[in-house]
Structures are given as structure tokens and as C-alpha cells.
Design goal:
128 residues; mainly beta; four-stranded antiparallel β-sheet; globular
Length: 128
């Protein structure tokens, strides 16, 4: 059973940076696509980024394009989300999730949230 644990969240000022990590246990990540989702209080969950099996393709939501970068290190069983130039609107709980199909499924321009395994999330607060 694949288990995912997010880390790296915290409090940061606008314009600051954070690097989130998603670390797997119970199985290896290399056959999965990994997505990052976030949910702000009172808002719907949003797909932020995704990286396919083998890093052959990546997706970044328009709202974070140019600021967020996703990467994976299968040798370390970890996927990272590097976040730069953070904005107040980036505040929320961030979740990583794994999809066994191995690629990122989009509905229109949005990341589909039909994933097989989810982490419990890490909180990001952007505040001055």
C-alpha cells in the first residue's frame, strides 16, 4: 500500500519561497504520476501541478505558472514542488497524490483529481 507524506509547508511572507516534498513509503513512486493539489479555506480543491511517470510530462496550473516547478527523484522516492514568489492567494493546505495510470489526466486545462492515493497534506500560509 503506497503511503504519501508531505512536508515543507510553513509561514512565509509574500514574495518568499518554499519547497514542498512528497515522500512515499510502502511502494516505489516510479510507476505513478504525482499530482499536487491545494485547498484554501472556503474554496474548492485546485490541481496545482503534476508530473508523469518518468517525468516525461509536467503540468502547472495557470495560476502558478512561472512560479511553481515540479520535479521527481525516484531514487529517493520523492516528488518536490518548488514554489517561488508566493502570493497571499497561495495560502492553503497542499496535498500530493499518486495516480497509477502513470500520466497526468487533465479535464480541459485543469488537473483531474481522480487519484489513487493521497497524503494528509501540509499547510502553507503566505502572510505579511
Amino acid at each position: 500500500q503506497l503511503q504519501l507524506v508531505e512536508s515543507g509547508g510553513g509561514l512565509v511572507k509574500p514574495g518568499g519561497s518554499l519547497r514542498l516534498s512528497c515522500t512515499a513509503s510502502g511502494s516505489t513512486l516510479d510507476s505513478y504520476a504525482i499530482g499536487w493539489f491545494r485547498q484554501a479555506p472556503g474554496k474548492e480543491r485546485e490541481g496545482v501541478s503534476c508530473i508523469s511517470r518518468g517525468a516525461k510530462a509536467t503540468y502547472v496550473a495557470e495560476s502558478v505558472k512561472g512560479r511553481f516547478t515540479v520535479s521527481r527523484d525516484d531514487a529517493k522516492n520523492t516528488v518536490s514542488l518548488q514554489m517561488h514568489n508566493l502570493e497571499l492567494e497561495d495560502t492553503g493546505d497542499y496535498f500530493c497524490a499518486a495516480s497509477g495510470v502513470g500520466f497526468c489526466v487533465l479535464v480541459g486545462n485543469s488537473l483531474k483529481g481522480d487519484m489513487d492515493y493521497w497524503g494528509k497534506g501540509t499547510s502553507v500560509t503566505v502572510s505579511s
